[in-house]
């Protein structure tokens, strides 16, 4: 047997989504272990939101700076509300978009028993109700989970169970929920100030939010409270260039739209029909696939800056940022 096959047999920690495995992994979470779980956006590295032990393990596993707070995930709206000071914006947004790829930041309820480590000492809490049925099944058993994306800090977020397995060398159990439908992290809105403020574009478009709330203030880069907004993030190993119509010979090419081929050596197309939702769902997987050392870099075709294009361009811009 080859080393590769042996490694897979020994290290495979991907759990098929049977009721037995859902129960098993929920029990581990209740015992303060950490587990990777699927959501509709990206896979999350989950731990019990009230357990400092679990939260410390998440930061250690990701090598994440401890000043960067985690999103609290819940399926029970009353339970989520009990940890924050709820307001009418949150009510409207939850009604329209939950469960779904939207996170809201609200002032913390002083009686909350959420791990202070998970909140990085802030007086606000980021909460979201995810949409994936397996995440629901687990949340119904365990209550609230803190879950950052299940990738080492600064690297590309995982959109399938195998991405997580490879990123952490099989060190963690992963519940297999297949490929993530949205493929980009949730949109984050800060509702703790005078007006709602966009902190991170994501799976719910700015247009949809503004239809509901009116024009939004964009988080100013100086006032950044979400350290996920650190310049370099989602970094592939190769340098990446945006808004390129024709790549150079030695570059891999990430295309978008019908004027490019669907697929050929060194070229992948985010959406041959030019659909931004499809492009979002393929973005991270295709960046990973093209991130191979025999190319000099990755060139990316222009992506329209509307709808989910805002979130796609945001992630590409960070992937393209000069490395510190
Ligand atoms: O789609 C998602 O949101 C995924 C899935 C797993 O749910 N999670 C995710 O988590 O993207 P993470 O940790 O990779 O990104 C969370 C972002 C970080 O940029 C963090 O700084 C910000 O949320 N954040 C968390 N709590 C915050 C708070 N109280 N105020 C402002 N930003 C906050
Ligand atoms: Mg992340």
Automatic annotation (TrEMBL):
<keyword id="KW-0067">ATP-binding</keyword>
<keyword id="KW-0819">tRNA processing</keyword>
<protein>
    <recommendedName>
        <fullName>Threonylcarbamoyl-AMP synthase</fullName>
        <ecNumber>2.7.7.87</ecNumber>
    </recommendedName>
</protein>
<dbReference type="InterPro" id="IPR050156">
    <property type="entry name" value="TC-AMP_synthase_SUA5"/>
</dbReference>
<keyword id="KW-0547">Nucleotide-binding</keyword>
<dbReference type="InterPro" id="IPR017945">
    <property type="entry name" value="DHBP_synth_RibB-like_a/b_dom"/>
</dbReference>
<keyword id="KW-0548">Nucleotidyltransferase</keyword>
<dbReference type="InterPro" id="IPR038385">
    <property type="entry name" value="Sua5/YwlC_C"/>
</dbReference>
<comment type="similarity">
    <text>Belongs to the SUA5 family.</text>
</comment>
<dbReference type="InterPro" id="IPR006070">
    <property type="entry name" value="Sua5-like_dom"/>
</dbReference>
<keyword id="KW-0963">Cytoplasm</keyword>
<feature type="domain" description="YrdC-like">
    <location>
        <begin position="19"/>
        <end position="204"/>
    </location>
</feature>
<dbReference type="Pfam" id="PF01300">
    <property type="entry name" value="Sua5_yciO_yrdC"/>
</dbReference>
<dbReference type="InterPro" id="IPR005145">
    <property type="entry name" value="Sua5_C"/>
</dbReference>
<dbReference type="InterPro" id="IPR010923">
    <property type="entry name" value="T(6)A37_SUA5"/>
</dbReference>
<keyword id="KW-0808">Transferase</keyword>
<dbReference type="Pfam" id="PF03481">
    <property type="entry name" value="Sua5_C"/>
</dbReference>
<comment type="function">
    <text>Required for the formation of a threonylcarbamoyl group on adenosine at position 37 (t(6)A37) in tRNAs that read codons beginning with adenine.</text>
</comment>
